[in-house]
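Q: Here's a chain of 136 amino acids. Please give me its 3D structure as tokens.
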Amino acid sequence: MIDLPNPFRVLAADPAVTDLIGTNPVRCFPHGQAPQGVAYPYVTHMAPSIRPINSLDSGGAPADTALVQVSIWSSNAGGAVASADQVYRAVRAALEVDHDIEALRDKGKDAATGSYRIDLDVRMFAHRVDIAERAY
């Protein structure tokens, strides 16, 4: 299986994030896979753009970079416990340690679901173990 850049490991290991999105389970799901009726708040993610970081002398791309969309979903916008804004701040702080935030979008309240949503585009990197373990 390909080890794609994935924010789950970062978010699940951060106590400020899990205080808001839980630990059993950690409510962080691949886009489109949040269970029906999942408790708010929760996070979804998808990597719509992944590309290898090529190097002329490495024998192959030693890492992949992905633009990962991370979406925060909540039943309220701000001011309440576990609001979209509070989760956004914790998620951003956890991801910014090792990754670059490239865009932020406050999507506001979704008319169909009544959910509040904030999106972050995060540049993440995944080092390829199969390349790193090669003997040169």
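Q: Can you summarize the key feature?
A: The mean pLDDT is 85.
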